[in-house]
Amino acid sequence: MVLNKAFALRVNRMLEEKKMSKYKLEKITGISHGTFRNIFSEVNKDLKFSTMAKIIHALDMTIPEFFNDKLFDFANLEYEY
């Protein structure tokens, strides 16, 4: 699985867990609707770390907490060197 897909899946899980809508997350972060649409439709292949950090912070999580998930195990990710 590619990183952007793993990121979108993890965000979706956290939204469900926190009973928060994508719309509310979008408003909290100030990230544009188009960027959110690209993240969740997996169009954006080069997700900026600053964008990820804003989303993680809005979910009231630390970066290590967010990425501490099997989705982000190197064995599960496709990446290029």
If you average the pLDDT, what whole number results?
A: 91
> What pattern of helices and strands is seen along the backbone?
HHHHH
Radius of gyration, taken over Cα atoms and rounded to an integer in Å: 12 Å
Proportion of residues in extended strands: under 5%
Domain count: the total is 1
| Helix residue percentage | 55-70%
Low-confidence runs of at least 5 consecutive residues? none
How is the biggest beta sheet arranged? none
Shape: globular
Provide keyphrases for this structure.
81 residues; 434 Repressor (Amino-terminal Domain); globular
How are the elements arranged and paired?
Blueprint: H1 3-18, H2 22-29, H3 33-40, H4 49-58, H5 63-67
Written description of the protein model:
By secondary structure, the chain is an all-alpha fold. The protein has one domain: Orthogonal Bundle (434 Repressor (Amino-terminal Domain)). It has 5 helices and no strands. Helix 2 crosses helix 4. The chain starts with a helix and ends in a 14-residue tail after the last helix.
Summarize the structure.
With 81 residues, this protein is an all-alpha fold.
